[in-house]
Design a protein that fits this description.
single chain; mainly alpha; 15 helices
């Protein structure tokens, strides 16, 4: 299961962060056990979410967006894609170590905020992901759903909408701005690769990734005290979550769903790009 790999790499990432701040160990010695505890406890906590799954609803919404496991079929069994999905904690640790103290704090708090708030949103529209719900049907036999209804799915971890993985990858790329150009380019490619990996591995639906963009921008805006942008993006995230749970996005025509999804992705990114650039720091 991917969570095992994620936990393993997260522990390595935590160790790298602590080593990087060893010269201030008296401030950071408490961070290691807290981070490790958060990683180890997040899985059982997520299992406390409602067992009613809206996966069929999300899959139908994906169909409205014109996606039907295509990346999963194209990249089926790719070890590189699976490793890319699991490498997020290491990438976070590397960028963290390349930042100065002030940028590390901003980066760390944005990542923490995105991680803590996400389970609250998972409770609005609980879903586990196509890999865990549809099993052998993913990716070569996407089910034809005539009626997209929620169903009882005990034992599954509901962590789909929004994709926390992609939100963290976006925060990683955005907060790498003070680094050298090579690091920024690598972080941008990692963000794109993470989006591909989350779909190809079946961990998320396309609509999960759509909602993850304004979610990440909202988290970064809160830390940067850009309250209007934060509030607008948070409203978009809540609107999508409610629309998905209610089934509106499952019945919306593609002519409405596709432009709405494109705007949900592009507008927050454009507004984020208009924020002042952070000063450059040495690698």
């Amino acid at each position: 299961m991917y969570f095992s790999a994620f936990t393993y790499f997260a522990l390595i990432g935590a160790a790298l962060m602590i080593v990087g701040d060893a010269y201030r160990w008296h401030r950071f010695c408490w961070a290691a056990p807290l981070l490790v505890s958060f990683v180890l406890l997040s899985q059982p906590v997520l299992r406390l979410l409602p067992s009613v799954s809206y996966d069929k609803v999300l899959l139908t919404a994906d169909y409205r967006l014109g996606y039907d496991f295509g990346l999963g079929r194209a990249l089926d069994g790719s070890l590189a894609i699976r490793l890319l999905y699991a490498m997020l904690p290491v990438a976070v640790a590397i960028v963290y170590l390349l930042l100065d103290s002030d940028h590390r704090k901003r980066f760390g708090f944005a990542m923490l905020l995105a991680g803590v708030v996400a389970p609250l949103l998972y409770a609005i529209c609980p879903a586990a992901g196509p890999l865990y719900v549809f099993g052998d049907a993913f990716p070569f036999h996407p089910p034809a759903l005539k009626v997209a209804l929620p169903f009882d799915a005990p034992g599954l971890t509901m962590n789909a909408v929004p994709s926390g993985h992609l939100a963290w990858a976006l925060l990683l790329w955005w907060n790498s701005r003070p680094c050298q150009s090579g690091v920024r380019i690598a972080a941008g490619l990692f963000f794109v690769g993470t989006a591909v990996a989350t779909l190809a591995t079946g961990e998320h639906y396309l609509v999960d990734l759509v909602v993850a963009i304004p979610y990440a921008v909202a988290a970064d805006s809160v830390i940067g005290r850009r309250w209007i942008l934060a509030g607008a993006c948070a409203a978009v995230v809540l609107s999508w979550s409610i629309a998905l749970r209610s089934g509106y996005m499952s019945v919306a025509p593609s002519l409405v769903a596709v432009p709405l999804a494109v705007a949900t992705v592009l507008v927050p990114l454009i507004l984020l790009a208009r924020t002042p650039r952070a000063p450059r720091v040495a690698a």
